[in-house]
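We treat protein structure as text, and this decision shapes the records that our systems exchange. Below, we set out a record of this kind in full and without editing:

***
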Amino acid sequence: MFIGELSRRSGVSTRGLRYYEEQGLLRPQRRASGYREFEEADVAAVRRIRILLAAGLNTELIREVLPCMADEGAILAPTCEEMAQDLKRERERMGHSIEQLQAAHAMLGSIIHAGEVATAGAGHVR
């Protein structure tokens, strides 16, 4: 199938599919005319890519883990122990990022509150 058909079937724009190809996530065959030709399996691969992107993985990590992902209904499952460890490390990294964002969010809330108290105490009305 050509890129337009894959786009229609996967719900990903042709631009997005070209990006996946640039990142090494898809490897379509090229016809002599230069047209990309995708296989039926690429529809499922795009679905897996979208799930992994939604899970917060970057394309570099997706390129590494994609060959070891199996569809388990609506979710994916790693089939290689090494990849499962990579995913656990990534989840831990995300957890640290979440904690840092929560701390920054709380700090900003404190600053906003202090500004509101200071402004109200000075008789300023907005």
The two ends are 60 Å apart (CA to CA). The mean pLDDT is 91.
